[in-house]
Specification:
The complex is a heterodimer of chains A (103) and B (416). Chain A has four helices and no strands. With 103 residues, chain A is mainly alpha-helical. Chain A is globular, with a radius of gyration of 17 Å. Chain B is α/β, with parallel strands linked by helices. Chain B is globular and about 70 Å long. Chain B starts with a helix and ends with a helix. The chains are: A mainly alpha (103), B alpha/beta (416). The interface between A and B is large, with 45 and 66 residues.
């Protein structure tokens, strides 16, 4: 980190608050638009890193059939895909909906 | 991974835990517009520890995605309505008032109730305004006879009622504007679902689709679906064949082009659009009516300190969709957090996916991946595209299911 940026960061005291939330790598914040518990696309938060990385690699190469994921996965390099997989694996799965609570 | 990010990850957590006593009052961000973009931005900024105020004039949001299904009687209007209780429960301050003025130098927003809010950064997600100066004869009064239904709500219900009441053998005229406009495939989904209604309830009736352009989103998929499903119901008239509407006469229910006058029983006129009015008030809209932005931060190219997301922004190759607005809001929120902290935001990548129905149970999609290139958000080469043109009906059914699940997921994420 450049000294000037670091200095500005250290001066901004309120910034400490924001660091509790891990920053998604490029592209990863878009995933939640579709992927969720109960949806056909399935939740991916908290799934094993290796599983997500393998799925992305297979979508990218076309080995694994898909509707939109093959088109999306081709937009990310191997390294970017691995970063996304690692990030998603560290996310906590969403709690089940209260409306679906069992009696 | 950038140098900045590596350092951030390495030192961030320890720093955060070690310095709580130094925490000052959180920086203030005002978000104007509580649609898919603004509501998402408010959540993300709030989650990032900022002092967020969401300014939204309406107490209920009415979703445009899936409103074509309401028009066709396939979905109840109630499924389009969302309150702001979910955002309030998340701890976001919501002010239901119209923003009437923005002083970018003083960093202050004035509201219709006379109060003002200062901000360190402002996020505008104002959606669109319909241009009632673009088609001669088509003004706000004409829209009561010839609904646009391009902002969901009463207009959606009006068009649905008109279609249901139309006599058998009647003619529906649907007019589509040139680019850019909200939801590029939306007019063609609407045409498809209206044709479905005609086919199933008034088989001698007809839809004439007048288009101010010759090419459109998911064109091959729509046109192959129309040929198979609606050969006698749907007539497509592109620009080259006189599809551009030059005037309307709402009293006589006539839609004029340079080539013909069309007498309509039901006329849906989707006029050209511009960024929602507050964008012009803020000075962030250019002569096109839309808002040029930096593709990394979504900060206005015209006014510093103001970010623009969603339909109002000129987002390069990214279409004006709810999915785009949601994705942009998260990237913009992270950039705002970084800028307020004196850090350089990381170069983002964004995704868009849009589903359309050609008929119930017959879904098609377009997807794209975008990155900043040459000062705009450009397509990532080799990625994205439409569903296969020769796909099986099983895939069409699956994509229709995905469309419904996407809607449920995104609305729950944004408003739930």
């Amino acid at each position: 980190m450049r000294p000037a940026v670091l200095a500005a960061w250290l001066l901004a005291g309120s910034v400490g608050m924001v660091l509790a939330r891990e920053r998604p790598p490029p592209g990863a914040s878009s995933c939640a638009g579709c992927h969720a518990e109960g949806a056909a696309m399935g939740a991916i938060d908290g799934r094993p890193e290796a599983e997500i990385a393998a799925a992305l690699a297979q979508y990218r190469s076309g080995v694994r059939p898909a509707s939109v994921m093959s088109r999306i996965a081709r937009g990310f390099s191997e390294e970017e895909s691995r970063a996304i997989a690692a990030y998603l694996s560290r996310q906590r799965p969403a709690a089940p909906e209260t409306s679906q609570e069992r009696p | 991974m950038s140098r900045t990010r590596r350092a951030f990850l390495a030192t961030g957590a320890a720093f955060a835990l070690g310095r709580p006593a130094l925490a000052q009052a959180a920086a203030k961000v005002v978000v104007i517009g509580g649609g898919f973009g603004g509501a998402t931005a408010a959540r993300a900024l709030h989650g990032g520890g900022l002092d967020v105020t969401l300014v939204e004039v309406n107490s209920t949001y009415v979703s445009c995605p899936f409103s074509n299904e309401v028009i066709a009687g396939l979905q109840p209007m109630a499924a389009q309505r969302f309150g702001y209780e979910g955002l309030a429960r998340a701890g976001i301050r919501i002010v239901h008032a119209a923003a009437t003025g923005i002083d970018a130098d003083a960093r202050r927003v004035t509201l219709a109730d006379g109060t003002a809010r200062t901000y360190d950064r402002l996020v505008l997600s104002p959606g669109i305004d319909l241009r009632f100066d673009a088609i001669p004869g088509y003004d706000a009064a004409a829209a009561e006879r010839m609904p646009h239904a391009w902002k969901a709500g009463e207009q959606t219900l009006l068009l649905a009622r008109q279609l249901a009441a139309m006599p058998e053998g009647g003619t529906v005229v649907l007019a589509v504007p040139g680019n850019p406009y909200r939801c590029p495939p939306g007019p063609y989904e609407r045409a498809s679902l209206i044709a479905h209604v005609l086919k199933t309830t008034k088989p001698r009736a007809k839809l004439i689709l007048l288009d101010a352009k010759d090419t459109f989103s998911k064109q091959r998929l729509f046109q192959s679906g129309w040929k198979a499903l609606y050969p006698t119901q749907l007539e497509y008239v592109p620009l080259a064949e006189g599809g551009q509407v030059t005037a309307v006469d709402p009293d006589a229910m006539i839609v004029r082009t340079d080539f013909s006058d069309y007498k309509a029983d039901v006329a849906c006129i989707i006029p050209p659009q511009r960024a929602g009015r507050i964008a012009a008030v803020a000075g962030v809209a250019d002569r096109s009516g839309w808002c040029p932005i930096d593709p990394v931060t979504f900060e206005s190219r015209l006014v510093p300190g103001i970010h623009v997301i969603g339909d109002a922004a000129i987002a390069g190759a990214m279409p004006k969709s709810a999915f785009s607005a949601n994705a942009q809001a998260k990237v913009c929120a992270d950039a705002v957090i970084d800028l307020l902290a004196g850090r350089a935001p990381e170069t983002p990548k964004l995704i868009n996916t849009c589903y359309s129905l050609v008929a119930p149970g017959y879904g098609i999609s377009i997807a794209g991946v975008y990155h900043p290139a040459g000062g705009v958000l450009a397509d990532v080469e080799g990625a994205g595209g439409i569903s296969p043109v020769d796909a099986s009906m099983a895939l069409r059914e699956q994509e229709a299911l995905h469309a419904a699940d996407w809607y449920r997921t995104i609305t729950r994420q944004v408003f739930g």
